[in-house]
Q: What sequence folds into this?
């Protein structure tokens, strides 16, 4: 174990190294680029032996690591914003082939250079596990854990973990680096299942299936696997907490001061950090507001929120993306999760889109409005732009 | 360069599963049969959408249409990472996936000199979707997106010179082949199999449905294509060394190739002459290249 002050992108590269990735491929895009540079530096210095494929675009980077994973080499890729949109097509295939790839998404909004969650949120239908991360330490830890989640036989799905570009990718924080041998005990070598090698008794075919009796079946199986990820994520995070002494809630959600809360805010990524400060200030004024940092967006922590909903008066949902014509994805998920059970009001707040700054004071106002709703007072509007 | 083989040296074992999804007289199905005979069993076959999708006894790695070069790259790098470079990463792609939608990724793989073998069965249009033009379609050919009418004479431009473009990446091996010359095809695929680095064999594969000729005449059409200089058979090593594999004393007139195919039936004498001039000029360059053993463009 050692400590180093490092930026988010270096924490990510360090996680890739600790996970003993064999093949990586990526195309540079701000703010993801320096991950690939840190990895290349590690290789050049002889610290990390892996194969980096310098491709000509994000689409092919996804296809390269997909194929390498199928053969049996643990693989990694990373991108941001428009690069992720360009990867859209093969991403569906990575998940349909049930390949346990891990990808870092360094958030960059799709309408500009600055961070919001519109990049990863636009990929909700691709069948991946989506995790959202708040700080550099969590990037490193999540990168290693993501492989254990992805490679679990019960799910075998690719994992994308997102963290806000600039504010996290380029900001230095002290990070604890676990010892390689401890990580090796936590994360065993990757064994593909099934194997595609021609000498296997029953080599696999990856790709389109023909003549399935029930053409709907692949979707059903995929959906069920994604739902099964919830207990797996919780197990893996519990094991990490036990081995390395750092925990992030139960893996699905990371609650902060919610035990006696009347109103609970939810946030993802770096906004959750500011929201913790806001909660502390609200508490200092005697206002019973708590925070849930959503770590796993897909699968959505339905069971956890249904429990929390039983004892609070209102949720204030902060969305850092908006699907035009539909609304905030977290707000929608929460309303869907709690539909049909008596429970709290669900207020929506758009904040930080296009990289707009979200101040602690903004979140205090969100908390006060949500608390008002929790006390049964009428609040307007139900959803607002902060 | 590849070594000539005799018919007796053609491997007997069939690795392509028939009938597959091919039509009667499908040139590409024959290309698959010959190619995988030559390659043997120790192969991961890579497929992308194409017509017909070859079905063989090998494990198959499918990829998105535009991902042929990248999926081969990932397999080759993965095999290296797990210490299994004995297994060959082979792609069996159509002209759509090589000339057009997958061109960028393949060019990048060639530039990186990935250890992969690309077999292109070139049937000169998007046959999977019903004969729409590709950049592999020859000039004046009628396709479903180049119908003949008062304002259209078929495809407007010459076929993209993909073998020479990939040769210009200075990769170890590029070859053209034809289903009408099976010994030459097998020799080239076998030679390509055992080279390290980027290799590509482009096989002209007549399509009776799209080219609109009698499905019993596939071999005749393919053979006339080679004999008339429309589809010359050659090999290029490292982008420079050149060898012409089939050199008749005299080329057949291109009209003998064009006439049996209804995709060319609308062509005027002047248009046929234009193609004849184009083919003759290119052929003279190939003859010159063969004499000096160097690529001449």
A:
């Amino acid at each position: 174990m050692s400590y180093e002050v490092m930026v988010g992108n270096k924490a990510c590269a360090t996680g890739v190294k600790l996970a003993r990735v064999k093949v990586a491929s990526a195309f540079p895009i701000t703010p993801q680029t320096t991950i690939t540079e840190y990895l290349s530096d590690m290789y050049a210095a002889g610290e990390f032996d892996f194969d980096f494929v310098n491709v000509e675009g994000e689409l092919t980077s996804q296809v390269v690591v997909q194929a390498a994973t199928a053969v049996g080499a643990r693989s990694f890729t990373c991108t941001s914003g428009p690069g992720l949109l360009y990867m859209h097509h093969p991403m569906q295939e990575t998940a349909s082939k049930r390949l346990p790839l891990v990808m870092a998404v360094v958030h960059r909004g799709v309408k500009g250079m600055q961070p919001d969650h519109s990049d990863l949120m636009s990929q909700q239908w691709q069948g991946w596990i989506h995790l959202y991360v708040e700080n550099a330490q969590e990037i490193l830890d999540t990168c290693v854990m993501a492989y254990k989640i992805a490679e679990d036989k019960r799910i075998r799905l690719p994992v994308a973990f997102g963290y806000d570009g600039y504010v996290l990718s380029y900001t230095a924080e002290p990070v604890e680096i676990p010892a390689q041998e401890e990580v090796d005990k936590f994360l065993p070598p990757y064994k593909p299942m099934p194997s595609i090698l021609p000498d296997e008794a029953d080599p696999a075919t990856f790709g389109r299936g023909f003549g399935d009796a029930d053409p709907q079946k692949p979707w059903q199986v995929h959906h069920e696997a994604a739902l099964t990820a919830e207990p797996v994520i919780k197990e893996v995070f519990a094991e990490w907490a036990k081995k390395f002494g750092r925990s992030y809630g139960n893996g699905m959600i990371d609650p902060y001061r919610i035990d006696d809360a009347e109103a609970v805010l939810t946030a993802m990524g770096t906004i959750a950090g500011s929201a913790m400060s806001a909660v502390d200030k609200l508490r200092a004024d005697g206002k019973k507001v708590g925070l849930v940092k959503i770590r796993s967006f897909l699968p959505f922590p339905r069971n956890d929120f249904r429990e929390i909903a039983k004892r609070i008066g209102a949720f204030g949902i902060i969305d850092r993306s908006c699907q035009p014509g539909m609304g905030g994805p977290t707000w929608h998920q929460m309303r869907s999760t709690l539909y049909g059970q008596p429970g709290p009001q669900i207020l929506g707040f758009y904040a930080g889109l296009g990289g707009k700054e979200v101040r602690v004071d903004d979140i205090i106002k969100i908390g006060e409005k949500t608390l008002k709703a929790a006390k049964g007072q009428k609040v307007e509007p139900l959803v607002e732009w902060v | 360069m590849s070594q000539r083989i005799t018919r007796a040296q053609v491997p007997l074992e069939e690795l392509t599963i028939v009938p597959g999804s091919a039509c009667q007289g499908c040139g590409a199905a024959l290309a698959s049969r010959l190619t995988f005979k030559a390659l043997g069993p120790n192969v991961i076959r890579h497929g992308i959408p194409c017509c017909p999708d070859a079905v063989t006894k090998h494990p198959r790695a499918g990829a998105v249409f535009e991902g042929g070069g990248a999926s081969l790259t990932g397999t080759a790098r993965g095999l290296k990472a797990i210490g299994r470079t004995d297994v060959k990463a082979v792609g069996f792609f159509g002209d759509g996936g090589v000339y057009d939608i997958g061109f960028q990724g393949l060019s990048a793989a060639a530039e990186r000199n990935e250890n992969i073998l690309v077999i292109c069965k070139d049937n000169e249009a998007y046959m999977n979707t019903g004969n729409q033009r590709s950049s592999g379609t020859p000039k004046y050919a009628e396709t479903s997106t180049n119908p003949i009418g008062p304002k259209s004479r078929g495809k407007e431009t010459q076929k993209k010179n993909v073998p020479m473009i990939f040769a210009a990446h200075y990769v170890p091996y590029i070859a053209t082949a034809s289903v009408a010359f099976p010994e030459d095809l097998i020799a080239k695929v076998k030679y390509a199999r055992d080279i390290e680095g980027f290799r590509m064999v482009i096989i002209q594969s007549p399509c009776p449905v799209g080219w609109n000729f009698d499905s019993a005449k596939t071999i005749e059409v393919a053979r006339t294509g080679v004999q008339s200089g429309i589809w010359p058979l050659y090999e290029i090593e490292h982008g420079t060394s050149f060898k012409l594999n089939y050199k008749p004393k005299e080329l057949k007139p291109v009209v003998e190739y064009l006439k049996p195919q209804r995709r060319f039936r609308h062509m005027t004498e002047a248009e046929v002459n234009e193609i004849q001039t184009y083919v003759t000029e290119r052929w003279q360059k190939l003859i010159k290249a063969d004499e000096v053993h160097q690529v001449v463009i």
Observations:
- Chain A touches chain B through 39 residues (CB under 8 Å).
